[in-house]
Specification:
The complex is a heterodimer of chains A (about 100) and B (about 475). With about 100 residues, chain A is an alpha+beta fold. Chain A has helices at about 30, 85, 90-100; strands spanning about 5, 10-15, 35-45, 45-50, 55, 65-70. Chain A has a 4-stranded antiparallel barrel with strand order 2-3-5-6. In chain A, strand 5 and strand 6 (about 65-70) form a beta hairpin. Chain A is elongated. The N and C termini of chain A lie far apart (about 65 Å). Classes of the chains: A alpha+beta (about 100), B alpha/beta (about 475). Strand 3 of chain A pairs antiparallel with strand 7 of chain B, so a sheet runs across the interface.
């Protein structure tokens, strides 16, 4: 499953500016690292494995080159864990309103 | 033979790329090195209020519900001195097609792009504006690219921005995701050049004229329902467009006496372009990291002359803390039954303490809400904050420390605003304006321009100039 074939939806990665090429005036921690780009598209090559240089066609039809990093990548963000500090807010506020109403 | 695509070469072609991608020749409005004719720019490149309404109606933007927050008002009155506790209303902008007021800004940009025959639009934004442009482009049949700053150098994405990227993709847009850094602008220019698409900037006159309808809707609806204009409208302030557009709309509707209050989340001390600080922010917009620099130098934007000029319109500017905004987000859900995104509730966090000090017959309007979902949610954002080593707990919000501690208030009485000294920002703007040109002596037209820009008068500007000369700073 670690191989993509032509037409698969993949994510690629490319270095836009190397660490030494960053714009003047960026903070030191940013200047020390490269500017990286990630994009997604349909694989144009016959096949590709992660780490390999590939070409993709984006959803609006642009051709972009980069290193394949993920095949059909998932969306990792979620609702997180419930926050006990916030769960306590509702009962407290409702009690205040009930007391205000007498 | 290809063009030189190096950073330096592309940045040097900036003005030419901008002219082609916006269709605006900003030189036309220039009045010397310092001044420009702001109203002429808004008039010539914007649309009349009537046209904006028609264009927005075509894509179902605007006419959002104005909801009275009756339970929150009751709570505020229970805490206020006798006779105090203004009525709080909220404009439910989450009801726009893409889930935020940004649909108003995008509606006009995308309409203009289509009218001028561009095949697609590009927007450089990590905010709700990307989804708004993508949604409007989908409706008008244009291609769309959104360029976002999403990841730190370890590849960790901000949950709020990951969600905005997903939403853009849902509307059929291509999303280009970058790591932290202002060179996003370089990638943006490269894409504009490669595609010949329209620059759907937040800061063109189209991006601002689109928000004016929000101000006029508030003025007209409150007048219609309550027989008067609101005493105050509270507006989340970042790049300045929201304040500028809403205030212009209120004034166009005749609500001249309505107090314009800008609000930002206090993120002082965190550097906006720092790889390390990037994921220690739990708000990616509506914060002081944009609010202060954009107020004091609007022309740092992605167009030569920013149409968002907050200092022209702000009557008061206040900050609130991250913990307070999460607290009122919970309050809005549990007392009013409205689950909305945290960043959009920044102005609600300020409206509560402001209403507490105002008479009961006064009306305060919170001017926006935004959609919520995975990533854009207190659970997602606070879980991520904890993973980044930020402490989350309850206590006194004054103990909140951006990037280190998010303190959720223990009671609604602790909600407060901190006033930002507007005169300090005005002097800072004047200093930045002087440093942007090779300043020797100002003409009276330039002094007049600076007075308009800072909503002050000639005396104020001349005092700031003398101070600048004598100390080298103001």
């Amino acid at each position: 499953m670690n191989k993509a074939v032509r037409g698969d939806w993949v994510q690629i990665h490319r270095i836009v500016l190397e660490a030494g090429q960053r714009a003047a005036g960026v903070p030191e921690d940013t200047a020390r690292v490269p500017l990286e780009l990630r994009a997604k598209g349909f694989l144009l090559d016959e096949e590709g494995v992660p780490g390999q240089e590939v070409r993709v066609r984006t959803v609006i039809g642009r051709e972009v080159r980069g290193t394949l990093i993920s095949i059909n990548p998932s969306y990792p963000h979620d609702f997180g864990r419930p926050v006990p500090e916030l769960l306590a807010v509702g009962p407290q506020l409702r009690k205040m309103l009930r007391e205000a109403d007498g | 033979m290809g063009r030189d695509l190096s950073y330096q070469a592309v940045m040097a072609r900036k003005n030419e790329i901008m002219r082609r991608s916006t269709g605006i020749d900003y030189e036309e409005f220039s009045r010397g090195p310092l001044a420009f004719d702001y109203e002429l720019m808004m008039e010539k490149t914007g649309y009349s209020l009537h046209e904006v309404r028609r264009i927005q109606a075509e894509t179902n933007v605007g006419r959002t519900p104005l909801i009275e927050l009756k339970n929150i008002t009751r709570l505020v009155r229970a805490l206020a001195d006798p006779g105090k506790g203004a009525r709080i209303f909220v404009k439910d902008e989450a009801a726009n097609p893409s889930g935020s007021f940004k649909a108003r800004r995008a509606a006009l940009s995308v309409y203009e792009a289509r009218r001028k025959g561009y095949r697609g639009v590009i927007s450089a934004t990590s905010g709700n504006y990307g989804a708004a442009v993508a949604s409007q482009a989908a409706m008008r049949g244009l291609d769309c690219i959104v360029v976002q700053e999403v990841f730190d150098s370890r590849g960790r994405g901000q949950p709020e921005i990951l969600e905005k990227g997903r939403k853009c993709e849902a509307y059929g847009a291509e999303v280009v995701q970058l790591t932290v850094g202002p060179e996003l602008f370089y990638v943006f220019l490269l894409l504009l050049e490669e595609t010949g698409f329209f620059n759907a900037s937040l800061y063109t006159p189209f991006g601002i004229a689109g928000i004016e309808t929000l101000g006029t809707e508030i003025a007209e609806e409150v007048l219609d329902r309550e027989g008067k204009y609101p005493e105050a409208v509270v507006i989340t302030h970042a790049g300045g467009g929201n304040v500028t557009g809403a205030a212009r709309g209120l004034k166009k509707a005749g609500a001249d006496a309505t107090l314009i209050v800008g609000v930002s989340v206090d993120l002082s001390g965190l550097h906006m372009a720092s790889d390390k600080d990037f994921n220690r922010k739990s708000f990616t917009t509506g914060h002081t990291g944009f609010g202060v620099p954009f107020a004091t130098w609007p022309d740092r934007a992605d167009v030569p002359r920013n149409a968002a000029r907050a200092l022209r319109y702000l009557d008061r500017y206040v900050t609130v803390t991250q913990g307070e905004v999460f607290y009122v987000t919970e309050m809005l859900a549990v007392l009013e039954g409205l689950e909305r995104g945290p960043a959009g509730n920044t102005s609600l966090a300020a409206a509560i303490p402001l209403a507490k000090e105002m008479p009961q017959d006064a009306i305060v309007v919170v001017q926006e809400t935004e959609y919520t979902g995975a990533g854009k949610h207190p659970g997602a954002q606070l879980t991520f904050a904890r993973e980044m080593g930020v402490e989350v707990g309850r206590g006194d919000p004054r103990e909140n420390r951006p990037g280190r501690a998010i303190v959720i208030p223990e009671s609604p009485e602790q909600l407060k605003v901190e006033d930002v000294d507007l005169n300090r920002l005005r002097r800072s703007y004047i200093r930045n304006a002087l440093e942007s040109v090779n300043w020797k002596k100002l003409t009276s037209e330039e002094i007049h321009f600076l007075a308009q820009e800072t909503n002050t008068n000639h005396d104020f500007v001349e005092r700031a100039l003398r101070e600048y000369v004598s100390t080298g700073k103001s």
